[in-house]
């Protein structure tokens, strides 16, 4: 969604103010968040002093990043919106979907440029412990059974500790290099869900 009025040199000469909000939601909440934002926009448009909103949505491996730039004709108009009951009520369900901290930045007048957003404010929350545990079992157990049965003719004449070392060396190499990263990508929506 973009504003109808592009930024021009006239924008620099006004008391206009811009407000950037960036956050990340899980892939599952992407559609639901978009619906909430589409209900928020008419409330913004009805706000005295509101000029425009631009929404940038970017899908990533750990979630969907949203960057919202709202423009108001003055700092007072922005402050009024930020303190309004309509804003608080409209944002409550949206804020429940965040999986990272929210970054907020404000600029006014001729200073329309924001600091570059090089990353979102914090890393997403790690998977819940029990989900991490399940992922580990899925990665290790089937491969362990396969390796023990496949390597039995080679490791059975060896001392038990040496045989286990051979199995563990192959197991950890395969799980850390291939299996866990692949499973993590495939199961990311489930792992990030709270």
TrEMBL record:
Domain of life: Bacteria
Family matches, as Gene3D superfamilies: 3.30.70.100
KW tRNA processing (keyword) present: no
InterPro entries: ABM_predict, Dimeric_a/b-barrel
Transmembrane stretches, start-end: 133-155, 161-184
Keywords: Membrane, Monooxygenase, Oxidoreductase, Transmembrane, Transmembrane helix
GO MF terms, alphabetically ordered: monooxygenase activity
Name assigned to this protein: Antibiotic biosynthesis monooxygenase (ABM) superfamily enzyme
């Amino acid at each position: 969604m973009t504003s109808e009025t592009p930024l021009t040199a006239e924008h620099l000469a006004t008391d206009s103010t811009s407000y950037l909000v960036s956050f990340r939601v899980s892939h599952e909440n992407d559609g639901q968040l978009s619906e909430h934002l589409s209900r928020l926009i008419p409330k913004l448009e009805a706000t005295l002093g509101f000029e425009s909103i631009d929404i940038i949505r970017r899908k990533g491996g750990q979630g969907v990043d949203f960057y919202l730039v709202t423009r108001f004709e003055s700092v007072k108009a922005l402050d009024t919106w930020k303190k309004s009951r309509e804003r608080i009520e409209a944002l409550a369900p949206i804020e429940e979907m965040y999986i990272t901290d929210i970054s907020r930045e404000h600029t006014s007048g001729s200073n329309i440029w924001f600091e570059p957003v090089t990353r979102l404010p914090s890393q997403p929350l790690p998977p819940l412990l029990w989900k991490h545990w399940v992922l580990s079992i899925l990665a290790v157990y089937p491969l362990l059974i396969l390796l023990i049965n496949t390597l039995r003719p080679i490791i059975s004449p060896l001392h038990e500790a040496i045989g286990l070392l051979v199995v563990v060396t192959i197991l950890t190499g395969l799980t850390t290099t291939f299996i866990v990263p692949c499973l993590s990508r495939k199961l990311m929506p489930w792992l990030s869900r709270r």
